[in-house]
Structures are given as C-alpha cells and as structure tokens.
Design a protein that fits this description.
The complex is a heterodimer. Helix content of chain A is about 35%, strand content about 20%. By secondary structure, chain A is α+β, with helices and mostly antiparallel strands. In chain A, strands 1, 2, 6, 7, 8, 9 and 17 form a 7-stranded mixed beta sheet that branches. In chain A, strands 18-16-10-19-20 form a 5-stranded mixed beta sheet. In chain A, strands 11-15-14-12-13 form a 5-stranded antiparallel beta sheet. The longest helix of chain A is centred in the C-terminal third of the chain and has 26 residues. Chain B has 20 helices and 19 strands. In chain B, the strands form 5 sheets. In chain B, strands 5-4-3-6-16 form a 5-stranded parallel beta sheet, covered by helices on one side. The chains are: A alpha+beta, B alpha/beta.
C-alpha cells in the first residue's frame, strides 16, 4: 500500500468552521506559509455547519453587552466550572468577527435603527445574534481555498507525529482507498470537532445524530495521545429536539412565542429557552413526549418560522414534516431527547487550551468543538480558529523543520495491517458500532454511578480487542470506520474515567450521579482533567479554575 | 444494488457527472460505473454525453465530453472504441451504441466547446520537455500545462502530430484536426519546436540537465524488416514510410498493382491508401487468419469494401525481380503464428506454393521501438525493472519518463493518450515533490464495477449507419466518413441503456443536502433514511 507524503508549515486537522477560519487567517498573516488541511469528508460543505446557521451564538455588541458580562453569564451557565481568560478573549473578539463575516457577505439582519437582532440564550445578557446565511460554510471554505490552502479531502487524522515531545505533523488515512497520508509540519492545529457520534440515537440509525456524524472524537484522541490534557469529559450532553430526526428548533420557535407543552397540555416553556431544567424534569417524570405548539401564533410569524427552519440550518426538515403530515398551523411538533454527545462548543468537553489556543504540547493548538472554551459554539470555533492560526504562524517563524521519525508512521501502518488483515473476522463493523453505542447509552451517560462506569471500562477492553480481531474491513471505507469506532470507544473511556473522578452531581443531566446526588462545591468547584500515560493508561486529576479576567480587562 | 430508498435519482435527468459523490460529506455515495466507461482507457464519461445528446442538450454534452478529453475531434474519428465492445446494448440487439460517432458529432457541432483551451493556473516555474508530439505527447502537454508547468514539445518531423499527422491517412483524419489540437495547446502556452530529432539536434543528456523533467514519447519506432532476400529491391516500399510520404504530399509512383505484406493497421491503411491513389489491383497477405488479424475490424471491413483482396495465412520467403520489372513474391503457407509459449514465431511450410507478381510491394509488419538515443542504462528492461515503470511510467533515471507506443509497442491513439495522461500525473508529482505511486488506481474507491443492468427500458431501434463517400468517389485526401446529423445523433443516443448511476452504497447519509444542491440538473432527491422518517 502506498503512502502519500506532504510537508507543511501548519497542518490543520479538520476543515470545518474552525479549520477553514484558521487556514484563512494563517494565510492572511503570511501568504507564503504552506498550510495543509486534512479533511475527512469534502471540505466545501463538511462539518457541523454543512450549510448555514441561523445565529452567531455569542456576540458582545459594543454599547449593548460586554465581554465581562458574557464571562459572568457563562460562568452561571457552566455552574462555575469555567476558566475566564479563553471565554473573555472569545467574547472580546466576537464583534470584530461579526464585522469580518459581514465584510465577506454574511447577512446579519438589523432593525430600522441599525441594531442587530439579538435573543437571550444565556442566563443573563442577549448575546445570540441573528444571522441568515445558508451558504456560510461555502463562504468560509472559499476564503480558505482562494488564499492557497492545500486541501486533502477524504483524509482522516489518526495520530499526531511528535519530535522530542513537540508536535511535528500527523499520520492520516484516505477513507476511500485506505492509503496512508503523512504530513510533516512545524505546527499543528486540531480542529476536528467533538464526538457527535457518541451515544446511539433513539431511531437506531447510526448516522441520525443532531450534530455532524463525521465527528468521532478524532481530535480528542489524537491530542490526548500526544500528551495534551482533556477536560470536562464528564459533561455528557443531550438536548431536546424534534423527535427521531434530531433537528433543532427550540430557539427559533420559543423566542417567537411558541410554547412547549407536556402530555397534560401544561405549558413547560414559553418565550425564554436558556433554562432547560423544566423540560428535562418533565421528560424524567414521564410527561413526555413534549410538544412545540405554534398554531396559536399569527400567520406571518408561522411563515417566518417556516422560512428559517426550511432554509438555513437543516432545510431537509420540510420533507420530514411533510412525510409525517405535520402542518404547523394545525399540528404540534414532537420533541424527544437526542443522543448524547461530547462537545466543547455545545458543551464543556475538550482539549485544554488557554486564551492563545495553546494545548501545552509545543506546536500543538486546538480550536472549535475539539477544545474546551466552554459552550463557545460557533463563535468559539471562528474566534479560536483565528487565534490558533495567529499563534501557530508566529510559532513556525522560529522553528526548524521537524525531523522525520518513520517509527511512528510504521506503528500506524502496523495497526492498519492488523485491521485490514484476514483471519477469522466475521463481525460486521456496523453491528459493533451499534452495540458499543448502545452500551454507552447504558453505562456512560446520566444517571451515572460507579457500578455502571466501571462496567463500561470492562466493555471497553472487550471492544478494543474485537476491533482488531473480529471485524472484517473489506475496503478503505470500512477500515476508516474501525478507526472511528476506536476513537468513540476511547472518548467513552475518557468520559467514564472523568465521571468516576467527579464524585458529585452538577449540570443537571449532563453529570448526574445517583451515588453522589449533591453538588459539592467544597471539593469539586474545579476542572476534572484526563491525561493519557505513555502506557495508554487513562488518568483523571483535578485542576483549579482560573477565575480572574486578564489584567487590564477590555483593551 | 442499494438505491433510491434514501437517495433517489431521476434517471432521465442524471448524466452521471459524479458531483454528488464528490460533495457528500459522509462518503455515502458510490458510482455504479457503466461498462463503456470501465472499458475506455481514459475512462471518459461516455454514458454522460450520450445521455445529454438524447436529452437534446448538446451544449452540456459537449462540456461533459470536454471535461475528460481536449481532443475529441481526433478521437471521435479514429478511436477503436473499446467502449463499444463492452456496450451493454450488445446484449440487447447485438449492435452497440455508436459512441465514437456521437463523440465526433459533439466535436463537430460544438467546436468552440470541444476545443476550449484548459484553464491555466498560476505558473509553477517548472519546465518540462516532451519529445514526440503524437497522441501521448499532446495529451501529456495538455495535462502538464493545466497544472501550470511550462511545456515545450519537440518533434523530428516538419509539423507536430506524430502518427496523427504522418501515419493515419488523411481520409481518416484530416490534417486540420491535428492542427486544431496543436493550436489549442499553443493558446495554452505550449511551445512546439519541429525539426528536432533525438540523437541529432536533441541531446538527451543536455535536456535532462537543462529541464526539470523530460518525457520521451517518440512512438513505436522504425519499421521492422522482413529479413528476406529482395527486401531492398526498387519497388519495395516500407508501409509507414509510404503513409508518411503521402501525408507530406510526396506520393511515390506505385503502379497498377501492389501487394501489401502485413496484417495490422499500417498494412491495411497502406492498402487503402494505394487503392485511393488509383492502384487497380491491391492485395494483402498476412500470416494470421482473417479473424485474428491485428488490424481493427472496421478497417478490414473498409478494405474489403474497396475491393482489396486479403489472402490470409501466407508468409513471404523471398522477393525476386522479374525480367519485365515486376516483383515476384514467393509465399509459403503459414501453419502457425505463435509458438506454444505464445511468442511470435511463425512457422511456414517448406515449399513455396504461390508466387504472384506485382508492380510494387509494401512491407508493413510492425515496428521496433528505437531507444538508441536514450542513455544506455535505461534503454531496455534490466534486472531492476522494465524500461518504464508500468504504473508511473518513470524510467530508471528519475527525471526521464516515457509514454505511448515507445513503451507499449504500436497500440492505439486512445491508449497512447491514456499513457500520456498517466505520465503527466507522475511528472507533476515529481515536480511538486509528491510520491508517485499513491492513489493511482482509477477507481479511487468510488466506483462499483459489478452490478446488474436493467435493460427493460431499451428502445427498439437499429444502430445508426454513418454515411460515407461512395467507393468510387474516394481519394487519399478527403474524409470518407461523414458525421451524424442532429436527428440521427439523437435517435442513436436514445438507444443508450443508461447503465450507470450513483447509489447510496455506504448508508451513512446525514440528510444534510449538499449532494442535492450541487446536482446541476436537479436529478437527485434526498429522502430521509427510512429508520428516521
């Protein structure tokens, strides 16, 4: 099997929101840089955005909200578990980001007075800013491509290369042909997203997740195995979305007057949707499925809602409702909890980064859902994509090229040979994934307790062996799925290990321990980090919060 | 075949461009590749442009054809159409779709599309020398120019084109077609220098030093000699040389009768050329049985049509000059052409049972690649490998690549072009510092080649017959074959069974819709996966 070898100044793993912004920014700063992007799918539409988003989640608009207010608000939303500096830096750069996107043709609606339309999504402050751009991904991809990024599509990152502890590139594989792709680089930006394909969705369809199912925690695993720390892996998130099809609509409907009803037709939520606890309680008490009702709203508002839902983020839902014979003017929309995910943007999991997107491993940066700038959403991805690029561009200026170490590449090749090799392999890879993700649902997610979490660790060992020994991989595609499944498996182990360490309950359903039901601020008002030892052992530890804003506050 | 539950394809609109497969972010789709495309040496989307003609969309058809091939005017005339040999239509009524003629139809009716120069990117500053401007060299020149490299093409003859200009007869491929292709390349900044022969005006060691890479595509080489007495008598011509002289306007005098010795394309072309020059009696002898002659079947049919007499299973022993100046050829029956190991080793009867006389003889028994002007250590196969690596076409000197008949022996225009393309891919990677060998398999993991084909919708219609000049009106310079007209082309294209299609092979759909949005003809509809909807 042949290997493709590339060289780069900066290697970006993941061509989604963070990755494309990073590529563009790096080449803005220094057009002579050689920037290579590994993209698992096809970069024009890939990633969590695919088409567009109906809002930029966090913008601190001058004379309206401030970065300080955002940090205060998000600290509440994260129940105290937040490092202030990265969130502050993100909020500080959020308005210039909006202006930059506007300059690229992204449409942010304004009222007659020239104010942007904002909604409250956080405990305090209206930071969510309306954005109507179904072609958002295409726009940012074009920026990255026009500036001369070297894009390698259908390439999944498998392992980082290290040169004396410093990030020196990565080994990836072509997900169609199974061929190895090796890129040596002076700096690496991980932007591979979270673990969207984690727990099994209620539909049983492996790819029916609400977030991009191509994200299988590749970046979490690559970073951790290269020596970076993960944090917040015990925060396992699920939300309530349209039942079965797992598409969002809460913010769009509730903030326009829609009502969330339970089976007794009691109103659970109205007007504000930043506090989901009542909805969670209703489901837990068996008063679900909950329903969104908008039939009482004026005709124009219903049409406006249809316009947004059927065009921007997931336009396919129009087909879904038609197929289910649901007319918003007469019928309600059923809600149900989605599958669970691990995500730094939607949630609180990810590689530990400071306000410079540094991971602690020299030359290794992280941005977007793969990093923990807690609940940073799209703003975090865009802003930290740029920050990572700025820092990486500065870093590579002084760096010699990394030294090749074929031992690391050979080690990956060996694993590929084992997994593509013959032998008595009869298990279908899809079945293994189904079973594993079903057991994640059984053992890794809330309600948690030490019995369940330890059962997962036992199952993890078994699945790890089965991936190598029992599943047949007939082509590059099937082989890449084995690696994806391995990454999901490792993320589940990181999560279970972190959950065992956090002996309290916090964040509602994201970390509820039936054996430690109370919140314990005395012992656990801190981060729980995960570290991979050289021997592959996963260890948890606690780390103090950074509460203080950077000296000097606003600049 | 998994299809249409999740991704529904409107078969009457889809022209298998493959964009949906490229854009799917979950790699859900695969292309069930039509047999014609599998058989084509450059894997053209022939199903696509044929279907577009059937839909009345010649403009889109021309563009789809142009995506894969910048030389459709040439290929549409002279290709030996391996696609048609595998056309599924044969299973239906024994008559394949006239894919070659449809290609020519598009080239003729949309010349501005067919000969549109390729888009040039930023210049790389790298310079490639190509020696040989036949089909392999021209295709390589095109592929390297569209990558931004500086290309100069050398040729020993007075005009570029190689066999296209000086081998294939003008009544099959007019000189203007080759000139148009060359002109298109010149508009792409490719430089042509004629009158430069390797080993004379061109020194390969110097080119290797002065250029960043070098492609040698000098063709099948000089003619093979029979090695029999009398071969050098006056009146004995060499097939390739005869064709070249006729194309150069320097026709020699043949006489009233001529015997062609040989069973391949050059022999048949020489026979047809003599016939069109007015030679009354044209005969052809070959070692092989009629059905096993190496010449393309269509060309043999044409020869018979023009009254050329083919005498198969004969081998020449000697040529003798008669008192009246004619030449007698002693022929023995050929018992076998190949030995038990399949090597070319004709075995003739001892006696000469036939000795016809002719005013002229043309010997056209093959070519021998001439690598004498190449550095000695790479001239042939060695213990470390063949002359040119079969996958990358690189020789044992890393900067030197080879393509076309020089590598494979005399084959066909389209196979030479396919090699030219592969050599260009290798050279581009060599120049950009990439490894040569990854991802070279055409299928790149996206094609399914074995699948059931549905013939139930087949239109009942006979294959179109191309109109050709009546035998009596043919001459050496005028094209014999005419192109299809619009009505005939559409009716012929409607015979296509539309075998290939995209399909939801991997069941990883996230119903995000880029495939649907990117389809240029709205032929794809995403249906939410069954488990979810």
């Amino acid at each position: 099997m042949e290997t493709r070898t590339l060289n780069a100044d900066i290697l970006i793993i993941g061509g989604g929101s963070a990755g494309c912004m990073a590529a563009n920014r790096a080449l803005e700063i220094n057009p002579t840089l050689r920037v290579v992007i590994f993209e698992k799918g096809d970069i024009k539409y890939s990633g969590s955005i695919a088409r567009g988003m109906d809002a930029l989640n966090i913008v601190a608009i001058p004379n309206f909200t401030t970065p300080e207010l955002y940090v205060e608000s998000n600290t509440l939303a994260c129940d105290g578990i937040l490092d202030a500096p990265p969130s502050y830096e993100m909020a500080r750069r959020s308005f210039p980001l909006l202006k930059k996107l506007e300059g690229w043709g992204v449409y942010f609606p304004q009222d007659e007075k020239g104010n942007y339309r904002t909604l409250q999504y956080h405990p305090v402050g209206n930071f969510l800013t309306a954005m109507e751009e179904p072609d958002l991904k295409v726009i940012i991809y074009q920026k990255a491509a026009e500036k001369g990024s070297f894009i390698v599509n259908r390439t999944m990152g498998l392992r980082l290369l290290l040169d004396d502890g410093r990030a020196a590139g990565a080994v990836g594989m072509n997900v169609r042909t199974g061929e190895l792709v090796v890129c040596r680089a002076k700096a690496v930006i991980l932007a591979a997203g979270g673990t969207a394909r984690f727990g099994l969705p209620n539909s049983g369809y492996l790819y029916g997740t609400f977030d991009y199912p191509g994200n299988t925690g590749d970046g979490f695993v690559m970073g951790a195995e290269a020596g970076a720390n993960l944090t917040g892996m015990e925060y396992v998130r699920r939300v309530n979305l349209i039942k079965d099809v797992n598409i969002p609509l809460l913010a769009i409907t509730i903030t326009r007057g829609g009502r969330m009803m339970d089976i007794f037709d009691e109103i659970v939520m109205e007007w504000a949707c930043h506090d989901m606890s009542k909805a969670t309680q209703a489901f837990a008490a068996g008063r679900g499925p909950l329903r969104i009702r908008i039939s009482h709203l004026p005709k124009e508002v219903i049409e406006e809602i249809e316009g947004i839902l059927f065009s921007t983020e997931r336009p396919v839902q129009e087909r879904f409702f038609k197929g289910r014979k649901i007319d918003f003017r007469k019928d309600d929309i059923e809600l149900w909890p989605t599958e669970h995910q691990l995500c730094g943007g939607h949630g609180m999991c990810g590689l530990v980064v400071n306000e410079k997107a540094e991971t602690g491993v020299p030359g290794l940066y992280a941005a977007g859902d793969v990093s923990c700038v807690a609940k940073g959403h799209l703003t975090g991805a865009f802003v930290f994509g740029e920050i990572a690029a700025e820092e990486a561009a500065r870093f590579v200026d002084s760096q010699p090229p990394p030294r090749p170490d074929d031992g690391q590449v050979a080690a990956v090749r060996k694993i590929m040979e084992i997994r593509s090799g013959g032998g008595d392999k009869r298990v279908d890879g899809r079945d293994l994934e189904y079973k594993m993700r079903r057991l994640i649902n059984d053992y890794v997610v809330s309600p948690k307790n030490s019995y369940k979490l330890n059962r997962w660790l036992e199952w993890a060992e078994r699945f790890s062996r089965e991936i190598d020994e029992e599943v047949a991989a007939g082509n590059g595609h099937e082989l890449s799925k084995l690696f994806e499944v391995e990454h999901i498996l490792k993320c589940a182990t990181y999560s279970a290990t972190a959950s065992l360490e956090r002996r309290e309950s916090r964040w509602g359903n994201a970390h509820l321990r039936t054996d430690f039901l109370k919140k314990d601020n005395e012992n656990f008002l801190c981060h729980v980090d995960i570290r991979c030892g050289k021997d592959g052992e996963v260890k948890a530890s606690r780390r103090a919060l950074i509460r203080d804003l950077p000296a000097g506050g606003a600049q | 075949m998994r299809s249409d539950v999740n991704i529904f394809i409107k078969r009457d609109k889809c022209y298998v461009c493959g964009i949906c497969i490229e854009r799917c972010i979950m790699d859900n789709l695969r292309m069930y590749l039509a047999p014609c495309r599998q058989a084509c040496p450059i894997h053209m989307n022939c199903q696509g442009y044929v279907r577009l003609i059937a839909q009345g969309k010649e403009e889109e058809g021309g563009k789809e054809m142009r995506k894969d091939l910048p030389f459709s005017g040439i290929v549409g005339r002279v290709c030996h159409h391996p696609c048609e040999e595998k056309c599924e239509r044969r299973e239906e009524d024994g008559q394949p779709v006239h894919i070659r003629a449809l290609k020519r139809y598009l080239a003729e009716s949309r010349p501005e599309i067919a000969l549109e120069p390729g888009l040039l990117p930023r210049e790389t500053g790298k310079r490639v020398a190509i020696v040989g401007s036949g089909p392999a060299g021209l295709m390589a020149a095109y592929e390297l120019a569209v990558k931004g490299h500086g290309v100069t093409v050398f040729d020993s003859a007075s005009e570029p084109g190689g066999m296209l200009r000086f081998g294939i007869p003008a009544f099959r491929l007019p000189a203007e077609e080759t000139a148009k292709a060359v002109h298109m390349l010149e508009r792409m900044k490719v430089v042509f220098q004629t009158g430069r022969a390797l080993g004379k005006e061109l020194d390969i060691e110097k080119i290797e030093r002065d250029w960043d890479a070098l492609l040698v595509a000098t063709g099948g080489g000089p003619a093979l000699r029979l090695g029999i007495p009398g071969e050098d008598l006056p009146g004995v011509f060499q097939g390739l040389d005869l064709l070249r002289r006729v194309r150069a306007g320097q026709t020699p005098k043949i006489g009233r009768s001529v015997l062609i010795i040989g069973g391949g394309n050059t022999a048949v072309d020489a026979a047809l050329t003599c016939r069109k020059l007015g030679v009354e009696e044209v005969g052809l002898v070959c070692l092989e049985e009629r059905s096993k002659m190496p010449a393309f079947p269509a060309e043999i049919e044409e020869a018979l049509e023009e009254g050329i007499k083919i005498h198969d299973c004969w081998g020449p022993r000697r040529i003798v000059r008669n008192a009246n100046g004619t030449l007698a050829v002693d022929l023995s029956r050929c018992l076998a052409v190949f030995d038990e190991q399949g090597r070319f080793c004709p075995s003739l009867e001892e006696t000469c049972s036939h000795s016809p006389s002719w005013e002229a003889i043309v010997v056209a028994i093959g070519q021998k690649p001439d690598r004498a002007a190449l550095p000695t250590e790479i001239q042939g196969a060695s213990s470390s490998g063949p002359f040119a690596d079969p996958m990358t076409l690189q020789t044992r000197r890393p900067k030197i690549f080879a393509a076309g008949d020089l590598v494979s022996g005399p084959k066909s225009v389209i196979e030479a072009m396919a090699q030219g393309r592969e050599a260009a891919i290798s050279i581009d990677r060599f120049l950009t510092g990439e490894t040569l060998r990854w991802g070279r398999a055409y299928w790149d993991g996206t094609c399914i080649t074995e699948f059931p084909i549905d013939r139930s919708g087949a239109m009942i219609r006979a294959r179109a017959v191309l109109s050709r000049l009546p035998v009596g009106r043919r001459d050496v310079r005028t094209e014999v074959e005419k192109t299809l007209d619009l009505k005939a082309a559409r009716e012929e294209a409607e015979r296509c069974l539309n075998c290939g299609r995209p399909g939801e092979f991997n069941q990883t759909c996230w119903y995000c819709l880029p495939c649907e949005i990117e389809c240029p003809v709205e032929a794809l509809e995403v249906r939410i996966p069954y488990l979810v909807r």
